[in-house]
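SAMPLE LOG
Freezer: B-3
Tube label: C17
Construct: single chain, 406 aa
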Amino acid sequence: MLTRIVAATLFALAAISARAEDVRPSDWQGVLEEARGQTVYFNAWGGAENINAYIEWAAGELEKRHGVRLVHVKLEDTASAVATVVAEKAAGRDAGGSVDLVWINGENFAAMQERGLLFSPGWAEALPSWRYADHENKPTILTDFTIPVEGMASPWGMAKLVFFYDSARTDESALPQDADGLLEWAKAHPGRFSYPQPPDFIGSSFLKQVLLEKVEDPSVLQKPVIEETFEEVVAPLFAYLDALHPVAWRSGRIFPQNYPAMKQLLADGELDIVFAFNPAEASSAIADGELPDTVRSFTFPGGTLANTHFVAIPYNASAKAGALVTADFLLSPEAQAKKQDPAVWGDPTVLALDKLDEGARARFEAIELGAATLAPDELGPALPEPHPSWMERIEEEWKRRYTAEN
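STRUCTURE (predicted):
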């Protein structure tokens, strides 16, 4: 009797696993039917109230339209979600995983892809809303930090490094035009600039921006790190930081925890120049009353770092169908237009407006970008992200050099 019970249990578990793997985005009606009633645990950074509010809005729409319950698992660092899936795989939990969808890009995407932790290739390109994606003109939709995405993650938004300042306090004519100019500006204005402490994503992005400008041969950054030459390649970056820290906020002894903390320092008048990875961030913050309406944006004429961020489904997700429906909704023209509105979030769309019908285009055209948002032709060239291995090693080296325990 016990043997039959065990056998039946194993058969049931195998059937559940098989059903999870049998989810096929090409059968969208089947996906919608299976998704109804599922709970999707969406692991996403939870450090900004406007983003949290947007995800809450999306959750309400998914429940209303598709019967999918979306739970925002608020993360401080995406790496913790990756670690969860790694641990589950090591424990043999190849179905029924605790992470259904994750907001991801860069080294975290590369780590999951390399370890075989992502749902099958091609699913993103089979979503109904994929037909609107501007993969022809935005190559970072197809290649994330030099790594081909292969349809294992669905694009969610665009990002480009942009700087902000309060025009009531800072002279526009004196704004720096590149990393070297920023260092000279910081020396002339001690204590008025800083960056979030790595491995915070925004802080690490600043390090990459400086490295891209200072490295002798930028093409080496498009390939994995070679340990034998690592110190030589990054030497200009750390020489730059050694010069910056003594004239930075709090003399470089401590750093803002993240972008919201840095933004508050601008609002409080402690910093005069800050930066974000969203061209509309300043306008969004003004709309939310977080920054004064005198804040404006600028960028470096020679270019700043740019990328696409994605949502991905772990290979062992419990609610794959619900995750697919969520990813498709987040890519839809309605959700993308709402997300681009600075009064909501201000995150630039991944869609091609010329692929949309008249009504969908009108949603985007009606968005007031705000006085603090640069026009697309004012953003300057997009500098490509380095291979993810560079960020991992640079963060390790930064910690070794500058944290208190070292």
